[in-house]
Amino acid sequence: MADIAFESLSRWYGETPRRTVLDQVSGTIRAGEFAVVVGRSGSGKSTLLNLLGGLESPSDGVVRIDGTDIARLDDRALTTLRRRRMGFVFQAYNLIPTLSVADNLRLPLSLNRLPEDGRVEQWLERVGLAGRGGDWPDRLSGGEQQRVAIARALIHAPDIILADEPTGNLDLDNAERIVALLDRLCRAEGRTLVMVTHAQEVVGLADQLLTIREGRLVDAE
Ligand SMILES: Nc1ncnc2c1ncn2[C@@H]1O[C@H](COP(=O)(O)OP(=O)(O)OP(=O)(O)O)[C@@H](O)[C@H]1O
């Protein structure tokens, strides 16, 4: 279970002129909550997700996980926090091309010294890819790769799931399967879920809607 709080979070690039892509954004996402981030392309959604996950450092402001300012953690503690307690689904999937699908899924388990206990097959089945563990990532369709990436993000049972358009490449059936899976993990198991999405039907499931416009959080219309 994990709470995420962010206070006056800003991210900018360059010096003169400075380009601000996230501008003093604040909020709280409670343990077990399902938050959806929406906004136009380029509005700063992925940047917010990267900051919440400690993948990027804020130019200003604070991210707290269970009350701890993650900027105060040393590299090792931050890596451990991310590896054990967070699961990321990236827009670009980031599967390792030299590892089979099953070995991609084994990676978070071995990094966290967790036993396999049939989890690889179980997760392949959960994302609709039973029996495909021996395949290579580059032989999979975009939607299949996306589902492997989702299984890899969830297999080590993280408290916090940060997902950047996890259904962007899926047909309706598979998108529904993945959203139902994420929703269940959040509701039944108390995982905190932050999802960037354009899918209107997912927005309806959210406990909290974070609408970003040109780097600022705005009230939903
Ligand atoms: N390393 C960087 N250097 C300069 N600008 C950057 C960098 N990374 C992101 N940006 C800019 O920050 C802005 C916000 O990007 P971000 O990826 O957060 O948008 P987004 O809302 O997730 O967009 P999309 O829906 O298209 O994925 C964009 O204009 C982008 O060009």
Automatic annotation (TrEMBL):
Residues 4-220 form the ABC transporter domain. GO terms for molecular function: ATP binding; ATP hydrolysis activity; transmembrane transporter activity. Keywords: ATP-binding, Nucleotide-binding, Transport. InterPro entries: AAA+_ATPase, ABC_transporter-like_ATP-bd, ABC_transporter-like_CS, ABC_transpr_LolD-like, MacB-like_ATP-bd, P-loop_NTPase. SMART domains: AAA. GO terms for cellular component: plasma membrane; transmembrane transporter complex. It comes from the Bacteria. Signal peptide: none annotated. Belongs to the ABC transporter superfamily. Macrolide exporter (TC 3.A.1.122) family. This is ABC transporter ATP-binding protein. It comes from Spiribacter aquaticus.
